[in-house]
From TrEMBL:
Organism annotation: Nocardiopsis mangrovi
Enzyme class: hydrolase
Coiled-coil features, chain-numbered ranges: none
SMART domains tied to this protein: DEXDc (SM00487), HELICc (SM00490)
Protein name listed in UniProt: DEAD/DEAH box helicase
Length: 497
């Protein structure tokens, strides 16, 4: 196992000048140790096994060589040239967004395939051709079964957060997907730990990998403080609220979706800008919630473990384990949301008297030496350790999002209708029944007035066909205008039984 020192600049790693210039424009000039160690081997086409903690710079470590090598030839429709497998939707979006600025410089198309998003968009993206495909195993398997994607052109495969994918039960799907890629291709595997199923993946799919480890697999980060707060059950909710009311971004981890929603509602009612994040929410809601957290519109995020690997937000200086995780790996993954890229941070775990033995065993397995404190609501010690403070106790009301200007509008004039009536009519002014009937080649408006009085226009009745929606179309109804039922070949006014 090697441990290469960091190079002074990215230009020494063999990357194209375009990439180096783009990195400099982004203020990135000195590579992290994992980047300096793995990029030269990845560019040379060797298999790479990278072991390091979350937040150590692994995305660019595999992403930059991936873009360079995948951009050598255009991808055919439905046949990506490289594949990045990740465990969660949030991590997929994180990887995609991190690679896009450099992909544009090289003219490389990057696509993503994740659950909770539109199948149509993803299928159309694959049809246009993508050189780099970032995917979660479940959705990619679905699209392959539908014939929307084939992997036999994939020459470079990346497994990011491989241990998390195995822990989440993706091992069979990952193996099935890797069996479909081009034989003899390059494989890059990055993981915080290298035991169990990860070791099986390494032995099965990697050929003499160059192994680089920049951190011990199960050690704590030196810039991260760990604290064990002993609390009484009756005080726990109050203490959680005071911690969440602190200045700065805070992530609070709980064990279930119900707990996440309940605690976030508790915080909002106490005046804390907060929201919950878990697998029960739609992808659009999860994306918007993370954006609000990243932009500072909410300061406390209550999340389940499914989000532990997908939350990549700068400036998080406190992680709170409201509920203890089930294992030491989950503890490390939760803590990895803070102290990223050399920054400092704190991890605080709340334990009741009957949980103290389990908590000490959990921290011991994680290789963490935590300071222990006995705290009560309003304690100065609680404020000193976490920054807790008294909330306002006035329910927080989320301000409305600013309205975006509509495209294609004039300078404040009324919107022009596009429904077949021709020129714009002032809002609120309606055509008379006779006028509408005349536009459809009818004699008078009595028939339509009678139908509207009966409440029939535009409704669907049990056992009947939908009446023709006369106010939304510009032509006569089918069937010669008799009866007003769409597609009535008999021309009768009576509905089909």
């Amino acid at each position: 196992m090697t441990d290469n020192p960091a190079c002074p600049v990215f230009g020494d790693l063999g990357l194209p000048e375009k990439i180096v210039e783009k990195l400099a424009q982004s203020g990135v000039t000195t590579p992290f140790p994992i980047q300096a160690a793995t990029i030269p081997d990845a560019l040379a086409g060797r298999d790479v096994l990278g072991c390091g903690r979350t937040g150590s710079g692994k995305t660019l470590a595999f992403g930059l060589p991936l873009l360079v090598r995948a951009g050598e030839r255009r991808a055919a429709p439905r046949r990506p040239r490289s594949l990045v497998l990740v465990p969660t939707r949030e991590l997929a979006h994180q990887v995609r967004d991190a690679l896009l600025p450099y992909a544009r410089v090289l003219g490389v198309n990057v696509g993503d395939v994740v659950g909770g998003s539109s199948y149509t968009r993803q299928i159309n993206e694959l049809r246009r051709g993508v050189e780099v495909l970032v995917a979660t195993p479940g959705r990619l398997s679905d699209l392959i079964e539908q014939g929307a994607c084939e992997l036999d052109d994939v020459g470079i495969s990346v497994l990011d957060e491989a241990d998390q994918m195995c822990d989440m039960g993706f091992m069979p799907q990952v193996s099935e997907l890797l069996d479909q890629v081009r034989p003899g291709g390059q494989t890059l595997l990055f993981s915080a730990t290298l035991d169990g199923d990860v070791d099986k993946l390494v032995r099965r799919y990697m050929n003499e990998p160059q192994t680089h480890s920049v951190d011990p697999p199960v050690s704590h980060v030196t810039t991260m403080e760990h604290h064990l707060l002993k609390v009484l059950p009756r005080d726990k909710n109050r203490i959680v609220t005071e911690i969440a009311a602190r200045d700065g971004r805070t992530i609070l981890f709980v064990r279930s979706k119900y707990r996440a929603d309940t605690i976030s509602e508790q915080l909002v009612n106490a005046g804390v800008p907060a929201a919950s994040l878990h697998g029960g929410k739609t992808q659009s809601v999860r994306t918007k919630t993370l954006a609000k957290f990243r932009e500072g519109r909410i300061q406390a995020l209550v999340a389940t473990d499914v989000a532990a690997r997908g939350i990549h937000v700068d400036g998080i200086d406190l992680v709170v384990n409201v509920d203890l995780p089930t294992g030491h790996k989950d503890y490390l993954h939760r803590g990895g949301r803070t102290a990223r890229a050399g920054e400092s941070g704190r991890v605080v775990s709340l334990v009741a008297p009957n949980q103290r033995r389990m908590a000490r065993r959990l921290l011991g397995d994680a290789g963490v030496d935590a300071k222990q404190h006995l705290v009560n609501p309003g304690d100065e010690l609680l404020s000193e350790v976490t920054g807790a403070r008294e909330p306002s106790w006035e329910p927080w009301i989320e301000p409305p999002e600013p309205e975006r200007p509509r495209r294609g509008r004039g300078n404040g004039g009324p919107r022009q209708r596009r429904n077949g009536y021709g020129g714009g009519r002032p809002r609120g002014e309606r055509r008379s029944f006779g006028e509408r009937d005349d536009r459809r080649g009818r004699e008078g408006g009595g028939e339509f007035r009678a139908r509207e009085q009966r409440g029939e226009q535009g409704r669907r009745f049990d056992g009947e066909r939908r009446p023709y929606r006369d106010d939304a179309r510009g032509g006569a109804p089918r069937g010669g205008g008799r009866g007003g039922y769409r597609g009535d070949r008999q021309g009768s006014g009576a509905p089909r039984s």
